[in-house]
Amino acid sequence: MQDALRNSRPREQEGTGQNRITAEILRTERGETIHRYRVDGETYESLEELDAATEGRR
């Protein structure tokens, strides 16, 4: 990605389970919004990807 990311604000929320989830909302210089989710050191680019990867943990 050529655009520099700005306004990065990680937010952590403790869930009811053992996993710590960090959600990042990033905005590029072009005004595009990028969401990233981190769980147990793994990064996911969408909620669908996160849900599919963590389905067996429930």
Question: Can you give a write-up of this model?
Answer:
There is one protein chain. By secondary structure, the protein is mainly β. The protein has one domain (5-57). Helix content is 14%, strand content 43%. The protein contains 1 helix and 5 strands. Strands 1, 2, 3, 4 and 5 form a 5-stranded antiparallel beta sheet that branches. The model has no long low-confidence stretch (mean pLDDT 76).
Termini gap: 34 Å
| Low-confidence blocks of residues | none
Order of helices and strands: EEEEEH
Biggest β-sheet description: 5 strands, antiparallel
User: What proportion of the residues is helical, as a percent range?
Assistant: 10-25%
Portion in strands: 35-45%
Number of separate helices: 1
Please compute the radius of gyration using only Cα atoms: 13 Å
Number of domains: 1
Outline: elongated
Structural class: mainly beta
Let me know the average pLDDT: 76
Count all strands and give the number: 5
What key phrases describe this protein's structure?
58 residues, mainly beta, 5-stranded antiparallel sheet, 5 strands
Summarize the structure.
With 58 residues, the chain is mainly beta. The protein contains 1 helix and 5 strands. It has one helix spanning 47-54; strands at residues 5-6, 11-14, 20-28, 33-39, 42-44.
